């Protein structure tokens, strides 16, 4: 049957939602990750805050291009909009202030934009714009 919870106040801090993996690695390509991600955008990191170990970090960025909004609620056009991304694991994906990236992430249950440790994040290169633009025109259905 169901186990009864031991009595007493729960004083333990909540466990981090996504513990950091042993090694931060991303799998796949722009193309293979596009459909499996909730949102896809390019942006320049304006600040990164990494709080106490039990708490997620945050990255603030200025949006360069939005290819899949996934319910982020960004204005159109999104260029220049600022966005806060939650980093459940503070170590990865590694983001540097002042650098620009292609960011593919997920939307949390509360509507917050998340970059989980396995999020596909790569340094932004201008030639990716065309690839992302093409991907955004294709429907995401069935097998990619």
What keywords describe this structure?
single chain, five-stranded mixed barrel, mainly beta, TIMP-like_OB-fold, secreted, 10% helix, 144 residues, Netrin_domain, OB fold (Dihydrolipoamide Acetyltransferase, E2P)
Task: Walk me through this protein's architecture.
The chain has 144 residues and is mostly beta strands. It has two helices and six strands. It has helices at 30-34, 128-137; strands at 39-49, 57-68, 82-87, 100-107, 113-114, 120-123. Strands 1-2-3-5-4 form a five-stranded mixed β-barrel. The longest helix has 10 residues, at 128-137. The protein starts with 29 loop residues before the first helix and ends in a 7-residue tail after the last helix.
Structural class: mainly beta
User: What is the helix content?
Assistant: 10-25%
Going across the major beta sheet, what is the strand order?
Answer: 1-2-3-5-4
- Could you say which overall geometry the principal axes of the C-alpha atoms support? globular
Please name the CATH architecture. Beta Barrel
Strand content: 25-35%
Using the coordinates shown, work out and report the CATH topology: OB fold (Dihydrolipoamide Acetyltransferase, E2P)
Query: What string gives the helices and strands in order?
Result: HEEEEEEH
Our count of helices gives 2
Beta strand count: 6
Mind telling me the CATH class?
Mainly Beta
Q: In this structure, how is the largest beta sheet organized?
A: 5 strands, mixed, barrel
Total count of domains = 1
Tell me the distance between the termini: 43 Å
Averaged pLDDT:
85
Radius of gyration: 17 Å
